[in-house]
Design goal:
Helix 5 crosses helix 8 and helix 11 runs antiparallel to helix 12. Helices cover 33% and strands 25% of the residues. The chain is α+β, with helices and mostly antiparallel strands. A five-stranded mixed beta sheet has the order 2-1-3-4-5. Strands 22-23-21-24 form a four-stranded antiparallel beta sheet, sandwiched between helices. A three-stranded antiparallel beta sheet has the order 9-18-19, with no helix packed on it. Bound molecules: zinc ion (ZN) (3 copies). The site of one zinc ion has 8 residues, from loops.
Length: 451
């Protein structure tokens, strides 16, 4: 075990204890020295004396590197050790580090090129950790996930990634932490609320007590009924003595100082400070914030590298987003109806992820096979995370059947070879079936319904 210890002031007694526990300790007086050494230690002990501003960038850069993204990091504060979540007595340091190292070695398919894979591997190697959100008033939705952000490369909204992983049963929601109002357009929670006159929209409104005269039915703010210290109706001049007999309190409770109208409830208006859109409160979205944990299925898929392995297919083919596919399909349908010659085919292919050591290799093999058999003019898109749709322009039913048979045969040969590889295939040929009344979306639904 080769442990790096970064601290400004080294206490020799502490160093002696650490060496006795862990063996070789390599000392660094500064973060820069450690980074410059390019050392790949078994574990890292970092003094928190450097302060959060210096430590966070170090952690972020380690977690973004292929080789150090899973390295155990232990904090040292005044001679006491801790992980993120709990204090760690010095005689438990070795056990803690070894537990992580063993789990790191368990991961069979190493693919740490994407932040998603790194973060999943991190939680695989820290089974007790939950993915916990923390409050930060500088963030647009007030919450962030520090453990995810240290890996995250900023490419997309990682909250959607958490949601997507939950849909795929890689992560599970373990606790609802909060539900916050946010802009339904950009999901920011930086919102400004103000109440307005419901009649003219002015902010110049005031709360008032109102009086309702039983004799003539007049309703007005109480101030208009007070005359020489008594209550007199300004409309019919009746003296109002007893509440419930002469008058009562109506529901109105606000008056607009601009238009003069009375109101029961003012109107709440919300302005999003991020995108500047104005909403009424009914239009706001509510965004739940959860705590997550890696599921057993997620652990198996992380170990065998099959999380998002369907993505391999995307990398190998002419992949377009579903809206582009719909656009192309509508165009091809219009061509066929107008010129009566463009015949096309659709193939839907569903691949059920396989939680075994060979899952990743199988997916790679399938992706390469598909690249060989589909033409450069064929297009591929995704209906959901494991269902692909192929659009084959200028293909008659005969050509389509041949391709479907080849795919089915290949899948079968893989099943024979490796076992447990679940796929479903369905197809549609515009040369055989009627397309005249169908939109692109209906066509896709028609073919996926056959799966
Ligand atoms: Zn009256
Ligand atoms: Zn008004
Ligand atoms: Zn907004």
């Amino acid at each position: 075990m080769k442990v790096a210890y970064i601290a400004q002031n080294i206490n020799n007694t502490l160093l002696g204890t650490l060496s006795a526990e862990l063996g070789e300790i390599i000392l660094f007086n500064s973060i820069e020295d450690f980074v410059a050494s390019a050392l790949i230690p078994t574990a890292l002990i970092v003094s928190t004396g450097f302060g959060r501003e210096l430590l966070q960038p170090l952690i972020n850069s380690l977690r973004k590197s292929d080789q150090l993204c899973l390295t155990p990091i232990v904090w040292e504060t005044d001679g006491e050790f801790s992980t993120y979540y709990k204090p760690l007595p010095v005689n438990e340091l070795k056990k803690h580090i070894l537990e992580i190292i063993i789990l790191v070695q368990e991961i069979e398919v190493h693919n740490y090129s994407s932040w998603e894979n790194r973060v999943l591997a991190y939680f695989y190697t820290r089974p007790a950790f939950h993915i916990i959100p923390e409050l930060d008033k500088t963030k647009p939705i007030f919450y962030y996930y520090p453990h995810v952000e240290q890996f995250y490369d900023g490419a997309e909204d990682y909250f959607f990634w958490l949601e997507e992983m939950t849909n795929q049963n890689i992560l599970a929601k373990t606790r609802l932490v909060d539900r916050i109002f946010c802009c339904s357009s950009c999901f920011s929670a930086l919102l400004k609320f103000s109440d307005l006159c419901p009649h003219c929209g002015s902010i110049n409104i005031r709360n008032e007590k109102f009086v309702h005269c039983f004799t003539c039915g007049h309703v007005a703010p109480e101030s208009q009924f007070i005359k020489d210290g008594r209550m007199v109706c300004p409309s019919c001049r009746t003296k109002l003595r007893l509440i419930g007999e002469d008058y009562d309190r109506p529901l109105e409770n606000g008056v607009c100082l601009d238009c003069g109208n009375y109101h029961i409830d003012s109107k709440l208006s919300v302005v999003c400070l991020t995108c500047n859109k104005t909403f009424s409160t009914e239009d706001l979205s509510k965004r739940p914030i959860y705590e997550y944990k890696l599921t057993d299925a997620g652990r198996a898929q992380t170990k065998f590298g099959t999380v998002n392995s369907a993505g391999l297919i995307v990398n190998e083919l002419n992949y377009i987003v579903i809206n582009q596919m719909l656009f192309m399909l509508d165009w091809i349908v219009a061509m066929q109806i107008r010129y009566d010659k463009e015949r096309f085919g659709l193939i839907a292919l569903q691949i059920i992820p396989n939680n075994s050591a060979s899952g990743y290799d199988l997916m790679l093999e399938l992706a390469r096979f598909l690249r060989r058999v589909v033409r450069t003019t064929d297009m591929c898109s995704k209906l959901d995370h494991n269902t692909f749709i192929f659009l084959l322009p200028n293909t008659d039913s005969e050509g389509l059947t041949i391709l479907v048979e080849r795919i089915a045969e290949f899948v079968k040969s893989m099943e024979l070879k490796q076992g447990r590889f679940e796929t479903k295939i369905a197809w549609f040929s515009s040369g055989v079936e009627d397309i005249s009344d169908l939109t692109a979306r209906e066509l896709l639904e028609k073919v996926s319904a056959k799966l």
